[in-house]
Amino acid sequence: AYQITVQALDMGANPIPGYATVIISVLDLNDNAPSITITMVSGSNAISTTVDEDASVGQLIASVRVTDPDAGDNGRVNVSLEMNFGDGHFVLEQVSDTMYLLKVGAALDRETIPFYNLSVVAVDNAVPFPKSTIQYMEIVLGDVNDNDPKFEKSIYTIDIVENSDPGAIVATVEAYDLDAGDDGSVFYALLNTYGLFHIDEHTGDVTCTESLDRENSTGYDLQLIALDGGRPPRSSTGLLKVTVLDVNDNPPILSRNVYTFEIAENQPSFSWLGDVSATDDDEGLNARLNFSILGKSSEHFIIDANTGSIHTLVSFDRELTSVMTFVVVVTDLGDAPQRSDSATANVFVRDRNDNAPVVFDPADNQRVFVSASEKAGYYLATVRAGDLDTSQNGEIEFTLAWDPLGSFNIDPDGGDLTLTRDVTPDIAGA
Predict the structure, then answer these.
(1) What is the pLDDT of residues 211-230, one digit of tens each?
(2) Is the CB of residue 316 less than 8 Å from the CB of residue 283?
(3) What whole-number distance in Å separates Cα of residue 46 and Cα of residue 48?
(4) Separation of alpha carbons 244 and 161, rounded Å
């Protein structure tokens, strides 16, 4: 307001002045927009700052001063905070008519929202045309190592053919880390290698350091580990299941090098002779076996190709054939080249008492002459006989089938025939 004094004089001689005080009040026009000054906690007036994503709720970010030189409602200002997303993540706290504090209002996560565009809006209360000011600022969230690296799969499965050349890449595993910079870089390792596997720490490529043998192990469970570059690093684990596939690299092996069988003669055809067996360390078709027999005597026998059970095709007569030999062959049904093994089989025909002894000396009804003066013990002749059977079945014992007077004796083993008493007329008459 302004105050002035007004003097009034008339035009006469010796005028007497009159005075009046005038107060001039200048009415305000809303001709000023609010002013916004933002000062970061660092003291900078920059409109961009970085806040760590693990900042606690209530942490001070900046102070905001809002002024308006207009008077009355024209100078009274309403202040609000707007942001592109993440409402409530930052808040303005009023501490005086002109001072506000910008603080963290909720938990932050750089991996969800990496930055915020904030607008501090100041609007005066003028009517009907309020004035406003907007101050823009950017808050970028700084990364902290708060995420573990994670494998794309919790379990990887691969098949490797045994005997493959070492050094080839057999699998590639991959992990990702949502953090940034070194915190988001990933390195790979194996917790257990069995001395057979290696993983590239940068690419995740898994290779075999040696050729695998399925017969030693059909598979391996490799524990994967992924580590980030943080200090300290964070890590996670995965599993790589390796199945070793079979190739036909093992021959079947018969249980014996030589088989010995016995069969009684005169057994009917298709009698069971015996079984052969074999093993194969491979699997599947590579371990499925086929049995066969070869050789001249094989025509008398048949073998089950699947089980190795052998039966006869004819009835045998030991007196014609006592020993036969053939070859047993076992072959796998796997990939070429198919592998095989062989063994000799000896068949012995066991004797049965199917032949009667035959006397060939003296001939039937042959006469033996003796002097009438011979005494007891006199040697008359030797009976000779044979039997086509063997062992006890072919051993011969001699006895006299008819000797009503008891005049003769025959040695049961040697067949020697002798007198048991002196020759007398009654013997001579006999």
Answers:
(1) 999 999 999 999 999 999 99
(2) no
(3) 5
(4) 6
Q: How long a stretch of residues is the chain?
A: 430
pLDDT digits (tens, 9 = 90+) for 302-347: 999 999 999 999 999 988 999 999 999 999 999 888 999 999 999 9
DSSP one-letter string for 47-98: SEEEEETTPPTT-EEEEEEEE--S-GGGT-EEEEEEESS-TTSEEEEE-SSS
CA atoms of 18 and 136, how far apart (whole Å) = 60
- The maximal CA–CA distance of the chain, rounded, in angstroms, is 235
Task: Tell if the pTM clears 0.70, that is, is over it.
Answer: no
Of 120-134, 302-316, 387-401, which gets the smallest average pLDDT? 387-401
**Type of residue at 319:** E
Which regions of 295-357 does DSSP assign to beta strands (E)? 301-303, 309-312, 323-332, 340-350
Residue 282 CA to residue 279 CA, distance in Å, equals: 9
